[in-house]
Write a structure and sequence with these properties.
By secondary structure, this protein is an all-alpha fold. The protein has one domain. The protein is about 80% helix and about 0% strand. The chain has 6 helices and no strands. It starts with a helix and ends with a helix.
């Protein structure tokens, strides 16, 4: 397996599926609506005014979420071309990548965004959000393995 088409497919499917399911996980974890979650994502770029932006900031949040998913997937997939063990042992490395995504998003990206605050977690929400990111990493790693094989 391999080739540019397979690499593109792994990035596209891994990124879009993981990012889309992550929106659903955020809805379940927070109890907020899809629109609110997407406006919260958009608020990272445009600030609190995102919540007054209606459909435009909902759409912006969706675009940003899917774009982040594609970038996160591209990092894993492209790294796995140099380190095929990431695909051979995809469950382990997918979980590790998910833990890394959790840390970077919550302790680097969000604080540096227009939201500008560290997340406030309860023990329960911390675990739920961590599990969501572990699944995010697993999905990306699974698509890398599925589309590129173990040794490409």
């Amino acid at each position: 397996m391999g080739g540019r088409g397979a690499v593109f497919s792994a990035i596209l499917w891994g990124g879009l599926v993981a990012a889309t399911l992550d929106i659903g996980a955020a809805v379940l974890i927070s109890g907020k609506s899809f629109g609110f979650i997407l406006q919260f994502i958009a608020s990272g770029l445009v600030g609190k005014s995102s919540f007054e932006g209606g459909a435009a900031t909902v759409a912006l949040g969706l675009v940003l979420q899917e774009l982040m998913g594609l970038i996160i997937a591209a990092v894993f997939v492209l790294t796995s071309l140099r380190l095929p063990t990431l695909r051979r042992r995809w469950p382990l490395w997918g979980l590790a990548y998910g833990a890394g995504i959790f840390a970077v998003m919550n302790y680097v990206v969000v604080p540096l965004s227009a939201v500008g605050r560290f997340p406030k977690f309860t023990p329960e929400s911390f675990v739920k959000n961590l599990v969501a990111m572990l699944l995010f990493g697993l999905i990306i790693a699974w698509f890398a393995r599925r589309r590129l094989g173990a040794d490409a």
